[in-house]
Amino acid sequence: MKLNLKQDFHVHCNYNDHSSRNLTIPAIMQQAKILKLETLAITEHVRRTSNWIPKYLKEINLYNSNLKRKGNGQEFPKIISGFEAKILRDGSIDCPDEYARDFFLIASFHTIYGDKSLWLNALKTAIRNPDITVLGHLAPEATFILEHSELEEIAYEIAINGKIVELNAKYHRPPIDWIPSFKQKGVKFHLASDAHSLDEIGQFSRISDLISAAEDSRELEPSIP
Ligand SMILES: [Zn+2]
Ligand SMILES: [Zn+2]
């Protein structure tokens, strides 16, 4: 399997309060065009209480149609509207249901729960949630590690539920030693800059080791007679 370096499935924008102010939706699309990206997902942090969602989606649609019009038949990036939502203690997702159902959704841990079994249960519930497409920057908390059997079980659940594990450039995740188990179970990967500024969009050199681990390099090795 080869990962497409021209696809970035995790980009924030200035609807939150901690990204660069110039990370506007039109600027992101312009950057995607400059970098000749094929696909870019705008995945702003969402909460159940977020009240800006209609405006956000409308703005993405508006600039997306402008981008296509100006493309004059030339290649233009495919822009995906989406969200990154937090996995809560009970494994539910901090995103209004109607948006979780209808849009590209990354589910990530953003709170330290300090309890491995709680973490594992929340993760398993999220993996079985049909609304979720991607598991964002997946990694254990600093206070625990997964036993091999726990990792195998998670990998199996991710694979049979068809979730994608992103290779996250901002946090350098998942742990590289998890990748063989994921691959063996048939988990799919894609690339995620998790950009919070324009210059981070589409930049994956920090995770070249994760990319090589995820790609199937066997055909490059000399065959043993
Ligand atoms: Zn995140
Ligand atoms: Zn993010």
Which features would summarize this protein structure in a list?
7 helices, 17% strand, binds zinc ion, seven-stranded parallel β-sheet, 225 residues
Description:
The longest helix is centred in the N-terminal third of the chain and has 19 residues. Helix 1 packs parallel to helix 2. The protein has a 7-stranded parallel β-sheet. By secondary structure, it is α/β, with parallel strands linked by helices. Helix content is 33%, strand content 17%. The model has no long low-confidence stretch (mean pLDDT 93). Helix 1 links the parallel strand 1 and strand 2. It has 7 helices and 7 strands. Bound molecules: zinc ion (2 copies).
What's the short version?
This protein is an alpha/beta fold and 225 residues long. It has helices at residues 25-34, 53-71, 97-102, 116-127, 148-160, 179-185, 208-214; strands spanning 7-11, 39-46, 78-86, 104-108, 134-135, 164-168, 188-192.
Percentage of helical residues?
A: 25-40%
Order of helices and strands: EHEHEHEHEHEHEH
Radius of gyration: 18 Å
Major sheet summary line? 7 strands, parallel
Name the structural class: alpha/beta
Secondary-structure map:
Layout: E1 7-11, H1 25-34, E2 39-46, H2 53-71, E3 78-86, H3 97-102, E4 104-108, H4 116-127, E5 134-135, H5 148-160, E6 164-168, H6 179-185, E7 188-192, H7 208-214
Parallel strand pairs: 1-2, 2-3, 3-4, 4-5, 5-6, 6-7
Bound molecules: zinc ion (ZN) (2 copies).
